Amino acid sequence: MSQSPLSSTPAISPANILVVDDNPMNLRALSKLLQQQGHQVRKARSGMMALKAVHAEAPDLILLDIRMPEMDGFSVCEQLKAAPETREIPVIFLSASDSTEDKVRSFQVGGNDFISKPFYLEEVIARVSSQLHLLRQRQHLSEQNAALLQEVRERAKAEAALREAELKYRSIFENANEGIFQSTLDGQYLSVNPAMARIYGYGSTQALQETVTDIGQLYVQPKRRQELRVYLQQYGEIAGVESEVYRKDGDRIWISESMRTVTDDAGNMLYFEGTVQDITEQHHLEAELRRQRQQSERLLFNVLPYQIAQRLRQGAHNIAESFDQVSVLFADLVSFTEVSTQMSPKALVESLSEIFLTFDHLVEQYKLEKIKTIGDEYMVAGGLPLSCEDHIEAIAQLALDMQASIGQFYRPNGQPFQLRIGINAGPVVAGVIGIKRFTYDLWGDTVNTASRMETTASAGRIQVPEALYQQLAAKFLLEPRGTIAVKGRGDMTTYWLLSQK
Fold it and tell me: Staple partner for 464: which of 140, 171, 349, 468, CB 3.0–4.6 Å?
């Protein structure tokens, strides 16, 4: 992974940043990254903690996770934007989802930007720096406006001074590098500066105003202006919002807009005004970085546990570890070889995919690790690559749920499929093998015994050895099977796992 900063990332002075995420790993990673950039970082693991932290000391910027228990990121942002004292704090949403709905909702509740998980170092730095840069610009512009307004009020009686202020503003308006505009509430330009006309590909400000009679027609997304207008009517201003727009020649570009509502003394809205920046080059660079990152990470995370994939991304080699206590499950579809001769290749693969997809969801639900599939055999482990206390109970419950779910899948003769499942727990060696095609696998007597428990189990049954029975008996119902001959182990006393108590 490249560590060099984006060339378009502006230099930003250290800021006070609040990171909100219920995942401790994400908190640590983001905090470390931001602190390396010189920022002061505070952390919150829930929405309520975030609100308390903001009211105790307002940060310059908030990185806010969307999916959190009790109070999600959208609710936190709505409360912040509803309060005048916190409304102007920029919010960058964090989400494992890259859905359009989440992005649209993020901007509707007042978010300024959106970062998809897992994080990419340069993307996080670029987006944080961009928002802090825009914040500094707004603060500077606000200070300038306040100073100008004070000057105008103090010299209102002097006509010469008023003309001087008007000329000063006109010079800024005409010579600014970013687009500046004023528009009616229904979407017509009242005034634009030359930079604005250049951004949209027009030869003059007059040509832009005469051609574009409805600003909404500039946006690639038909309802984009309506979304921005709703936000402006509710909150009065918006900063650093990115949109895709059409130029005069039909080309598409990306812009960053900051806008506010201008009202009279009675609070009635008069018009909108704001600034526009062309960020097409930066957006294309970020999109290409995301595409490359997502392509490589999609492959890596599909075949390896998250923590192992992260270590490989960070340059680790020859990953091999010993674990004192790991639970291992093997499941096999009964008579699947016989069934495969009765089905077309396409139907066979589709059926197996549906079954294993159901198992994948259960494995994810219990926070276990799917190790691999070999034909119609399915292997799962618990307690690695990160250790946890309840992995044995979790894998036992997984086995029960797998037996319950397999009944919804039917063979060509109309009979439901059946599973043989074997479980064991103990020490293992785990590591990554291969160079071009990585595989994460387990080795040791614990694994071999778990496999033997599966191969010697009866259809529809879950078999465990006596040592594992001692660990499960307090919370699960088991019945003795008796003594059986196990290849490589001799006679063993085993039990059937029946249900939770």
Answer: 468
- Which residue do the tokens 């709703």 mark? 230
Give the number of other Cβ atoms within 10 Å of residue 29's Cβ. 18
Tell me the C-alpha distance between 422 and 426, whole Å: 14
Q: In this structure, what DSSP letter does residue 216 have?
A: G
**Residue that is written with structure tokens 């829930």 in the block:** 46
Residue type, 369: E
Which token pair is 227? 């979304």
| 394-to-295, 367, 464 alpha-carbon distances in Å | 32, 8, 14
Distance from C-alpha of 231 to C-alpha of 78, rounded to nearest angstrom: 11
Q: What would the two tokens of residue 84 be?
A: 């005048």
Cβ count near 383 (within 10 Å): 23
Sheet holding 237-246, edge to edge: 189-192, 179-183, 269-278, 252-263, 237-246
The pair of structure tokens assigned to 45 is: 């693991």
Q: Give the integer Cα–Cα distance in Å for 428 and 71.
A: 40
Q: Whole-angstrom Cα distance, residue 478 to residue 396?
A: 11
By CB atoms closer than 10 A (0-12, 13-18, 19+), residue 425 is buried
Q: Rounded to whole angstroms, how far apart are CA atoms 159 and 136? A: 33
- What is the radius of gyration, based on Cα positions, of the chain? 30
Cα distances from 274 to residues 84, 377, 408, in angstroms, run: 20, 61, 58
Q: Tell me the one-letter amino acid at 448.
A: N
**Mean pLDDT in runs of 10 for the chain (501 residues)?**
41 86 91 93 94 94 92 94 93 88 91 88 89 87 83 68 54 72 92 91 92 93 91 90 93 93 92 91 80 63 59 63 91 87 86 92 92 89 86 95 93 90 92 66 90 94 94 94 89 94 87
Residue 298 CB neighbour total at 10 angstroms: 9
Beta strand 462-465 pairing with 490-500 = antiparallel
Q: What predicted TM-score, i.e. pTM, was given to this entire model?
A: 0.43
Task: Identify the CA nearest to 425 among candidates 457, 456, 388.
Answer: 388
442 within 8 A of 430, measured Cβ to Cβ: yes
* Parallel, antiparallel or unpaired: strands 419-433 and 320-333: antiparallel
Tokens of 4: 């060099």
* 91-95, strands of its sheet edge to edge: 40-44, 16-20, 61-65, 91-95, 113-116
Hey, which residues does 275 pair with through a beta bridge?
180, 258
